[in-house]
Design goal:
By secondary structure, the chain is of the alpha/beta class. It is about 20% helix and about 30% strand. The chain has 2 domains: about 5-260, Spore Coat Polysaccharide Biosynthesis Protein SpsA, Chain A (Alpha-Beta Complex); about 280-360, UDP N-Acetylglucosamine Acyltransferase, domain 1 (3 Solenoid). The chain is globular, with a radius of gyration of 21 Å.
Length: about 375
Amino acid sequence: MRTNNVLGILYSNAYDEVLPEMTGQRTMGSVPFAGRYRLIDFPLSSMVNAGISKVGVITKANYRSLMDHLGMGKPWDMARKHESLVILPPYVGAGTGGNQTRLEGLRSAQEFLRNSKEEYVIMSDCNAVCNMDYRTLLNRHNSSGADLTIVCRKGSAPKMSTLRLQLEDNDRVASVRLSAEPDDEAVHSLNIFVLRKALLERLIREAGEEEDTDFGFIRRGVASLRVRAALTTEYAKVIDGLQKYYDANMDLLEAANRASLFHPARPILTKVQDDMPTIYGLRSDVKNCLVADGCQLRGKAENCVIFRNVIIEEGAVVRGCVLMQGTYVSADCSLTHVITDKGVVIKPGKALMGAANYPIYLGKNIVI
């Protein structure tokens, strides 16, 4: 399949409600992750690495930081005259409330779909941290003769409303159900779908109001379509809450997970922020940390993910923490299992202790 014949659709606000601590002022897609990235970087980079040159980003609310991050799409080589990155804000008219569901988002973007010449569509949410080979996925969809391919994995299902699949003959989807119940052996969707654009437009037209819910039009289509599952065994973490966000960051301290997620043949691209290298003080002690540029580390840090421009003063000790951009940890502080959002300031002598299964979260620009 020619990947320049594929249109990308990203849902930037899907599942905002499962991470309310971080999505009050931003979309799920613009949540910072892994020291220097945003969650949208992962599905967007997978599309770009596969040669997809036109991507529409469906938004609902709080998308100013997303627009600032994406800009014209230059870091992803999508700042082009024709095929490019397009932000699709909600259409709000008399008696409407914007894009409240996936179907409403697609209906709002119908003109974008109609004017796109691509034959196929690949749709994805932004809360699944993975680095998929979309070329292989698209070729598999084409060779299988499927009308719809759903990317999924087997194992512990996320604690949120998502599709659970019943499979026959290894990859044929016999039925789907929407559930938020915990299930350690479920085959659950990663909410990555491949189908023809004409079929998607037909599903949108035929969907009734009773199906105007998340996945309603997809579930109805399963009964009459040839639906295949693409099971992935590569690293993938679905963000379904603050704990899973913390765990996903901590996973990157293991070399095998980093190698899977940051594959050299499929680089994860992001907005470039030119900054000075990180400075390590003479008495600093940094062990097993993922550290971005522009930091000043003079204290002790162990098993931490440290974003850009973080300052840890001498005498401070941080363990098992996720410190976002601009966090300032004063002298003689002790932080254990703490997530700080951007611009947090910890004054001298403070001690904060969470647990690996219950991290403390400090909101944006909070001073402790």
